[in-house]
Amino acid sequence: MKKKPYKVLVINQSATIRHAIITIFKSSDALEVIGEAENGYKALIKIPKLQPDVITLDITEPYEKSLTALKRIMIFHPTPVVIIDHCLKTSSAIFDALAYGAVDFLALSLPVVNTTLDEKALKKQQEQLIKKVFLAVMVNNSAFQYIPLKADKKSSPPQQKEGCKNLVILGVGEGGYGALLKIVPKLSAAYSTAYIIILYETSNYLKSFIQYLNHFSSVKVQTTSNNTLLETGGCYMSTGDEYVTIHGKKGDLLTYVSPAPFSSRRGSIDMLMFSVSEALENPLGVILSGEGNDGAEGLEEIVRAGGGAIIQSPSNCLYDSMALSALNLCEEKIVVADREIATEINNFLIYSVN
User: What is the DSSP string of 176-196?
Assistant: First the structure.
């Protein structure tokens, strides 16, 4: 018996973009467009009757209205939402939308409706959109819930830098922005610990994401740079295009950053975790949503060296292959939804940092 296609509701201010998106979805047997709307408020009227499995939402209209509509969708009609950004200038709005409950986003360049666009580039965008929408349908509903964020007033920095005595390494790929929004703002700046995040996403949004996280976090979020002292309460973020390793001793740990020679092979998380397991006695490794298997061997090595392991529950991941690979390889681990990971990290640090 043939499985029914998933029902999609398309919300976009531009009739031209709506038509382009609908045309793309028509090319997939797994998706069926059951309705369209030019804004979130009109969509809210249609949702109870149409009961879509997934929604795409444009946030390039006055985005405050889109966010308000998104919040109402999450409260009254909880449905996976994929954000479409075709202005490519609204990164803070995208992160707001993820905090409001959207599960993923796609930066859709305007040439998608232009027949002069390179055929290969057009096909790639079409495939990305279909994949993101399809995966959004499959994710557990715990992944699309409102994240309450409050601005954090960081205390005055100490006069003297305090080198960390332990490290928490977080490896994350596709679908990881939402997970990090639920984790980083809840991390403690105490426990003589620093955090390093390897994020497999394009660097276009990295700077904006760091600024966004900093507004809500007690830890100091920053890019990872070469030969930097890892400080207590610091959270250092890098893309998978770099290899980050550490050297030195507890309290005086320094970074070494170099371009990844084969970034497409995805080895940056393993590389960092191997390095950390050699330098410290009880570090903590965390694997979140993402594609591929990078981080599985590194996490196993951290456990073998006496550290801890936390893995995001695959059913809670938008992309579950990184989590599944780590689960299959690492015997001793804690497996929880992304909302619970910060608590588990803080609990581990309370009892492990000397």
Answer: HHHHHHHHGGG--S-TTEEEE
Which tokens is 12 given? 């976009």
- Distance, CA of 114 to CA of 118 (rounded, Å): 9
Q: Which tokens is 325 given?
A: 């690979």
Residues 76-103 as b/e (b if ≥16 CB within 10 A, e otherwise) read: eeebbbbbbbbeeebbebbbbbbbbbbb
Select the more confidently predicted residue: 107 or 324: 324
Do 301 and 275 touch, CB atoms closer than 8 A?
no
Domains annotated for the chain, with CATH where assigned, are: 6-143 (3.40.50.2300), 166-352 (3.40.50.180)
Nearest to 18 by CA among 47, 67, 56, 51: 56
Tens of pLDDT, residues 119-169: 777 788 888 899 999 989 888 766 666 677 777 766 555 556 799 999 999
At 237, which amino acid appears? M
The per-residue pLDDT of the chain, averaged, comes to: 87
- Kindly report the backbone phi and psi dihedral angles of residue 220, in degrees, each rounded to the nearest multiple of 5, phi listed first: -95, 105
